[in-house]
Amino acid sequence: MEATGELPEPHFKVLGNSLLSQIHIHQDYGGVYPMLAKREHIKNLPVLLEKILEEAGGMEGVDVIAVTAGPGLEPALWTGIEFAKDLGEKWKKPVLPVNHMHGHMFSFLFEPSELVKFPALALLVSGGHTEIVLMKSFKDYEIIGKTRDDAVGEAFDKVARLLDLPYPGGPKISALADMHRQKGLASEIIFPRPMINTDDFDFSYSGLKTSVLYTIKKLGVLNEEKKEEIAHAFEDAAIEVLIEKTKRALDKFGASTLIVGGGVSANRYLQERLRGLALELALDLRLPPPALTTDNAIMIGIGAYVAILNHPKILGTTREITAQGNLGI
Predict the structure, then answer these.
(1) Cα–Cα–Cα angle for 233, 270, 147, rounded to 5 degrees
(2) Domain 114-288: what homologous superfamily?
């Protein structure tokens, strides 16, 4: 990826990009199996690199190699780190560790638009994270709310398994919920909205998942229409908590810009509610391009470039790069 310009208006051009999905490998496990993911990374990283270099016309012009250091599954993280370090030695280029969540937080910068007004809020929603981040600038930010147990994307996948839907279940839950809405049917099932009225900006989704479990056990064998209704009720509850907590945080901190990132940001109903919130509050809503909602190398490149612009001396600093599964923002 070619990156030019300064904050707040950098410009990015993708020279080569390739993705190899492992979904079919992990479907039997209902989620990502760490050691299988590591094995596939080891096998496929050289293949992907060769393909990318062919698209980009070689490695000439490469100034820095960016690699995810965390958070995430450590076996897979270590594989990427070792691969990047080997490339760095071979090409005589610096290797820059990047925070996975910074990639999600800054992925909106890929598409040029009006300047961001600070303070801003970032809502980061994925299979592993549900966080609200207060951004005072591109280099000054802190988590003001996070999940205390399951992340929202994790809850979607777990409920999908309860409904015997294949992995990844989140999009399938959303599809069933959308089908129920399009039929004009109101859900007679009402699930709890955990922590929606607490004074903080934290989240909890394990109780909502448990409520779905008890409902399914009570109903017994489910036909397709009942699965649609459960999906509808669950998605309503999960998204409403995100919207209400975000709305309250926007008000408290006087933010007029809302940045959204992570795989769940692609959820159609969430986007619909976010656009409604933006109209209600006259918000500047920044959503990532659809292709950059899920985990991808482009967002890690963007995160690396933002780090370089914020800390120009970072490339001259020698550091030991380690996998940090629970790395904070």
Answers:
(1) 80
(2) ATPase, nucleotide binding domain (3.30.420.40)
